[in-house]
Amino acid sequence: MSSKSGTLSGGTQKLLACCGIMDPLIYTVVLAALGFLQPGYNHVTQSMSELNDKPANPRAAMEGEML
Question: pTM of the entire structure?
Answer without folding.
Answer: 0.56
